[in-house]
Amino acid sequence: MKELYKKGLCFALALSLLLVTAGCGSSEGQTGTPDGQGQDSVPVNESANTDENIVNIGITDSLGGLNPFTNDQTWINKYAVDLEFLPLLELDGDLNFQPMLADSITTEDNINFIVHIDENATWSDGTPVTAADVEFTFCRLASPVIANTTLMLYAFEGTDDNGFVTEGADSVEGITILDEKTVQFTTKYPLALTSFENTYALYFHTLPKHVLEKYSDEELMTLDWFNHPDVISGPYMVTDYDVDHYISYVANEGYWKGAPNIEKLNFRIIDSSQIYAGLQSGEIDVTHHTMTAIPQEDYENIEALENINVVYGSPITNQSVFIQTANIPDKRVRQALLYAIDRNQILEQLMKGHGEIVDGFLSSAGPFYDETIVPTPYDAEKAKALLAEAGWDGSQTLRFFVNSGDGAFVNAAQIMVAQWAAVGIKAEIQTVDLATLMTTAGTMDYDLFAVQYTYAPVDPYPDIAWLLGGEGSWTGYSNEEINEALAASQTAASTDEIKELYSIVDRKVQEDVPMFSAYIISGQGAVNKRLTGVNANVYGFFANVHEWDIVE
């Protein structure tokens, strides 16, 4: 099972680094700023929103595109497509899977997953959404011509090691149509139901076969139809977009779950330094924890705005520090690195207390968090004793790679390096942009590096299994006890049993320290008080977007 996720590193990065900019406290956002060129686009700080039935969502991520066949699954791309083509399921704010296009997903053997499409689900032209649409979409996503690996479809029967099917295939062994509204997915090996739901159902955007089947795979890769589709299953359809500036939507009046109350939505892609001013003026109505990087220095100012309700998200994004254990093989030295840091001081001073300190991977936001695992305390004397015991002579200088775009952690890293120096560990910070940081991570040519990393609370298995996957992983660390616990988690029968297995992992990671969490972030989100019905949670934010409304 672990091999699935080792092959799927690109996918794991796409999902797990979804929040890599949101809430990072940097004022270095995207370079593009709204220029009013889009339909219904209004430049921030220029004038108030004069059309009361438009909602502007301020975003600091950049859009990759709107074609589900070629997109990765970063949050902005997922949500941008979700509004038009519903995922099978969605997570809500309480981390429960909620029906979207599918009204149920079940399995009796963790091999065959039965997906039932809601009987009421229709395309905007009135055509029912069917199992044939699901099969068509799967075959096109698995096409070697389209060659999109982000969904890791090699888990399913009939696909090769890259997740591809035979070129031009209209069917595949791993997809069986049971009736018009029911389809069966069959995997090559056991997969926990939550893994199927979280890895596939959340990101599988079913597309209309009756509209797209006339196009070749080559044509689908660049089809202009996706930029202004006229047949959708979701609440909104795109009217115009610019990858660096905006996405404009209009309501699908025939949405089968109910016509949206808000006539038009805009995603406004702006620099993070503009968020406060946009919220203050009313140019921005909503920000979201996973797509909007609000500078930490603006948090209190935004809290003070009379027209805004502020919501802090669940602590789900780890500021993770990975140790290349091949370069620091003595676990006593790794333990000393952790004991030497006053993480609570960093959390309070730099994050204003908006977050938490844990050991291991899991935060209190998830169902598998073990509250009995007490985080390693700050103890400089203990760190010195461990170094002495390990024979550390202080001559080695550790190379500590940090994302230059994460202003809060650059400051935190400076505190950490000073605290390490106080116990006899020399470290040198090397700040690089995110792309360079990820390239460096792939080379294994570092001693430590830090990046914001979100371990999906309901299914942390893929990321943990890879990160602790031994040689070639970011830590270079592997442990048989951890491997057995992770494998068992995929067939465990209850949440309590899974929790016990992940506790084994986190306790062993606390003991051997191949990585640690500097802190876990609770990002800030904001909603204009003129809006009602907005579930301002990290997860499930747009699941009920058709119910959003404007206060009269």
Task: Write structural notes for this entry.
- By secondary structure, the chain is α+β, with helices and mostly antiparallel strands.
- Helix content is 28%, strand content 19%.
- It contains 17 helices and 21 strands.
- The protein has helices at residues 2-7, 9-16, 75-82, 131-141, 193-201, 209-212, 217-221, 275-281, 299-303, 331-339, 343-350, 380-390, 407-423, 434-443, 461-467, 480-489, 495-512, and strands at residues 54-59, 89-91, 97-99, 102-107, 112-117, 175-179, 182-186, 236-242, 246-251, 264-269, 286-287, 308-312, 317-323, 355-356, 397-403, 426-432, 448-454, 515-521, 524-528, 531-532, 549-550.
- The protein has a 7-stranded mixed β-sheet with strand order 8-9-10-1-11-19-12. The protein has a 6-stranded mixed β-sheet with strand order 14-18-13-17-15-16. A 4-stranded antiparallel β-sheet has the order 4-5-7-6, with helices on one face.
- A hairpin with a 5-residue loop joins strand 2 (89-91) and strand 3 (97-99).
- Helix 10 packs antiparallel against helix 12 (380-390).
- The radius of gyration is 24 Å and the shape is globular.
- The model is unreliable at 1-50 (pLDDT under 50).
Short synopsis of the structure:
The protein is of the alpha+beta class and 552 residues long.
